[in-house]
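Why Nucleoside diphosphate kinase regulator? Reviewers of the renewal asked for a concrete example.
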Amino acid sequence: MRNHNLRPRITVALSEHRQLLAMAAAGTSPGAESLLDEMERANVVQDDKLNSDVVRMGSRVQFRTDEGSAKEVTLVYPAAADISLGRVSVLTPVGAALIGLRTGQSITWRSHGGKKNALTVLSVDQEHNLSDQV
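Here is what the prediction returned.
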């Protein structure tokens, strides 16, 4: 998987798209640049039209890396990030890669060090949705 550039279609809720686009445009980190790229190519839909298997802010996501390890994280805004609690900021490279993916989709992304990685979403749980926490 690592030799290919996987960029599947992604879908983002309208309310989150506005916030994420503004946050990414204001940032200077590699994660902000990745998030801006994702937001510019995203299919934006009304919040009530977003499928429940799409990763959004506050989603609990299980994914598998190209190295075979499975991880589970909650995608959050930067202020709520805490890796010890499994809360990953959307402004990190992996957070930017996860937003908008559906269960079963894979994406290629670059870590802070520039290493090319790939991940596949295994499941998405919206019970942890924190989308109102900015």
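The two ends are 34 Å apart (CA to CA). This is the kind of structural detail the renewal will allow us to pursue systematically.
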